[in-house]
Amino acid sequence: MQIQGIQEEQQPSRQLILINDKRFGASNETDRRMLLDIEPLVEKLSALYPGFEVRAVRFRDLTWTEQLRWMSRAKVFVTTQGSSAFRFVFLPPGATCVVVGSPASNNTTYFKPFHELDRWFSLSYVQFLRYGMSVDSTAEYEVQRVPGHWQPDDAVEAHDWWMYNANVRVQAERLQAMLDPVLRV
Fold it and tell me: Which residue range or ranges hold the Glycosyltransferase 61 catalytic domain (predicted)?
């Protein structure tokens, strides 16, 4: 935290797996690109990695200083694509950012950019991993079209746009396969 100019009172005893919880915050607003079923995911990850603290945090409810404190402690940051993912710039050296989101696609307008955050910023101190949802398994995602919200006029592009904005249900087993090498389990 000293990099950000904030003095930390004491060093935590366990490393942190931090999950970005974009669900209903203090303002009770819904959001797009949310992780679904977070509590069971936290429970499963806590059981899989007992030496780590696993926390889901609603950043929108926190002050900027509190957000920095959480980010500066994270060994792993699990987040959906979008503007809230850009908090990864405050991860400590050696941390990993797992970007959860839309499926791999040839549509570079909506799908490609947020999965390639490491190309947007040359952060050699953060490792990026991509957790793409499977379009073949509707159990992994929910698309909630919002009447009145902007979408492309073309039907195929509109479908891709809403897939890009889908809420994702992370499968703990798939995430574990990504995290085991990172956490050296």
Answer: 23-98
Q: What's the confidence (pLDDT) of residue 149?
A: 75
Q: In angstroms, how far apart are the furthest CA atoms of the chain?
A: 54
10-39 confidence digits (pLDDT tens)? 666 789 999 998 876 556 566 677 788 899
Q: What is the DSSP letter of 34?
A: P
CA distances in angstroms from 13 to 10, 46, 51, 77, 149, listed in the order given: 9, 15, 10, 18, 45
- pLDDT score of 31: 67
What contacts 155, CB < 8 A, 6 or more positions away?
none
Residues of the chain with pLDDT under 50: 110-115
Q: What are phi and psi of 17, to 5 degrees?
A: -105, 115
Question: At a CB cut-off of 8 Å and minimum separation 6, what does 69 contact?
Answer: 1, 6, 8
Q: How far is the C-alpha of 9 from the C-alpha of 18, rounded, in Å?
A: 20
- pTM more than 0.90: no
How many domains does the chain fold into?
A: 1
Q: Is residue 6 part of a domain?
A: no
At 177 the pLDDT is: 96
Query: CA–CA separation, 179 vs 45, rounded Å?
Result: 10
- Count Cα atoms within 13 angstroms, Cβ side, for 87: 29
